[in-house]
Fold this sequence. Notes:
The complex is a heterodimer.
Chain A lengths: L1 E12 L2 E13 L4 E5 L6 H8 L7 E6 L2 E2 L4 H7 E4 L11 H11 L4 H14 L15 H13 L5 E5 L7 H16 L3 E6 L2 H7 L2 E6 L2 E6 L1 H9 L1 E6 L3 H5 L6 E3 L2 E6 L2 H14 L6 E5 L3 H9 L4 H11 L1
Parallel strand pairs in A: 3-8, 3-9, 6-7, 7-8
Antiparallel strand pairs in A: 1-2, 1-4, 4-5, 9-10, 11-13, 11-14, 12-13
Helix pairs in contact in A: 3-4, 8-11
Chain B lengths: L1 H22 L2 H16 L9 H18 L6 H5 L2 H7 L4 H30 L5 H29 L2 H17 L12 H9 L1 H13 L5 H24 L3
Amino acid sequence: MIKARGLARRFTTKLGPVDAVRGVDIDVAEGELVGFLGPNGAGKSTTLRMLTTLLQPTAGEAIVAGHDLLSDPAGVRRNIGYVGQKNGAGADQRVADELALQARFYGLSKHEARRKAGDLLERFELQGMEKRAVITLSGGQQRRLDIAMGMLHDPRLLFLDEPSTALDPQSRRNLWDHIKQLKADGTTVFLTTHYLDEADFLSDRLLVIDHGSIVGEGSPDELKNSVSGDLVVLGTPQAAVVATKFPDAVVEDEKVSFRIPNGDRSLPGLLRDLDNLGVELHSVQVHRPTLDDVFLTMTGRSLREETNAGQNYLG
Amino acid sequence: MLDRTILGDTWLVFSRAMLPVLRNPVAVVFGLVQPLLYLGLFGPLLGDTGWQWFVPGLLVQMVLFGTAYAGFSLMPEVRTGVMERLRVTPVSRVALLVGRVGKDVVLLVVQGLLIMLAAMLFGFRASAGDILLGLGLVALLGIAIGSASYALALKTKLEYVFASVLSSTIVPLMLLSGVLLPMSNGPKWLYWLSRVNPLAHVVDAERSIFNTGPVLLGLVSAAVLVLAGVFYGVRTFHRESA
């Protein structure tokens, strides 16, 4: 559905050239829900803007939804949906008008446009808002309207740029359900996010981008496994004894922590071994690595520092 | 096929721009306040015979002040995601500009008509044919200035930059067009300066329509302005849309 090779964008600024995206390769198969994860300024939106014809790449090539990005941007536009970071409905327009006109821009007949608009109003829980001016909608309602506008022409491929930014926890959760449903209906979805929980919850596969280059790729679980295994924390008076068995173990009072691959599965055997050695155990904890651990390993930076606000927001 | 798409798209963009105006026609009235003030508070200074001379100039001034600021309506749509959303659809880039300009021209024609009708109460005289021709010239000038305004708004991006570019262009254009007083009253250098201003010829032509005199030079000036404005506008809309 997407096949990009060496896609790059260099911006010329007064302070010299800035390479926002440095030649990325992206492959997205039909029906996949792919998350594009990275901190602010990593090049996520620039990549997305190139893939959706909004920005001309300075190098590279791509086939998007079966059409060549460079030679047939109009073909790309007809076959994709795009929901940008900011609200796409005119503040002084009525909800139903914006939906119907958006459908007409994609060539739907008047009748078909009205029918589709009605369907989507219902699907995105906006019934009764038809005659409201867009400016009177709540943030969550506007966001759902944005996504409805991106879906009117049943695109096979939908791009979502930071879909849940600035939404309250409930609207966020609601939006995620809608996005999951899109995937279930067979739409290929490519979304950017800098929220780890969002990437984790939604994506089949993640691309991690930093400083304009893709630094990691895989399913959320694969990425987490690639880090260094799960963190096991044992409470025992013989912490020092246990520590000798694991090279990276850290001892802290009556606690010892170390990483092992597939902690959930290897733990029973491990506990038996320790029992045989006569080690007395008070407590056992296994922590799966988070995507933040992944990010830290891949980039040497924590994504959490940048998204603290969002994380706290969720509680 | 291609032309039909552009026409159809233009109609859609035009409809989208017109809907809020039709729902809230107060905007049309606001555009009338300034010209009506000139009509009531300045026109009478020119004496009973001044109306035939003054009203056509007033129409041109209305186009200038009414349409040059049209670009402001684009800026919130650029700042939020509206323009971006529209640009990802297959809608024609030309239509995105022309549809918007179309709305401004329709408003201008309605406002122009209302001003002429109001002026008739003061003693302005015009035949139906004169009014049609006069409004045609108003529409042409509106297309030119409207297109340029939208393009300039896209280029300048910031309201305060756009506003200062506008005020430093519109006022000299207006003063040198002879809208308020005949340029021939002034010294030679000022008169010749006004001859370089295409707007002055449009004003002359508009006056000739409601009196007697040559219209051609003004029509040509307006046509050249339309070509220049639309060219600049379409080029900017294409370029800013990658």
